[in-house]
Amino acid sequence: MAASIFSSQLMAATTLRSHPPWMALRAAAQVLGSSRLFNNHGLQVQQQQQRNFSLHEYMRMELLQEAGVAIPKGHVAKSPDEAYAIAKKLVSKDVVIKAQVLAGGRGKGTFESGLKGGVKIVFSPEEAKAVSSQMIGEKLF
């Protein structure tokens, strides 16, 4: 046991001089853990979670649907005329129009056109066309 602690301590000392600090912490944790000083609790180094992959809502919905998850009906409109056609095809008394942005808080933002909020409930295809014309191609702040 003493020989393994000594060789581990030597490795930790070498790591301290030639590697970044986080590697030294990991080596020290291994030494202390192998000597059972902390009863296998060791030293934990926490890292900040990073978000590496962003998808629009409609893209996430497509992936979920492909995986067999039930999702609400929805379509992507790239023009006010498409929004009108989709709203007419859905045959519903109300339709939700959502801006697709890669940022949180779209419901609280304001478009360059002056429209407040990136999520709107409309009650006719004509209203869908009017609202979407104030969203599509506009910046949301």
Automatic annotation (TrEMBL):
Q: Does the keyword ATP-binding apply?
A: yes
Q: Does the keyword Nucleotide-binding apply?
A: yes
What PROSITE patterns does this protein's entry cite?
ATP_GRASP (PS50975)
Tell me where the transmembrane regions lie: none
An annotated GO cellular component of this protein is: mitochondrion
Tell me which residues make up the ATP-grasp domain: 61-107
**GO biological-process terms attached to the record:** succinyl-CoA metabolic process; tricarboxylic acid cycle
What keywords tag this UniProt record?
ATP-binding, Nucleotide-binding, Tricarboxylic acid cycle
Q: Name one GO molecular function term.
A: metal ion binding
- Which stretch is the leader sequence? none
Matching entries from InterPro entries are given as: ATP-grasp, ATP-grasp_succ-CoA_synth-type, ATP_grasp_subdomain_1
* Name the UniProt record assigns to this protein: ATP-grasp domain-containing protein
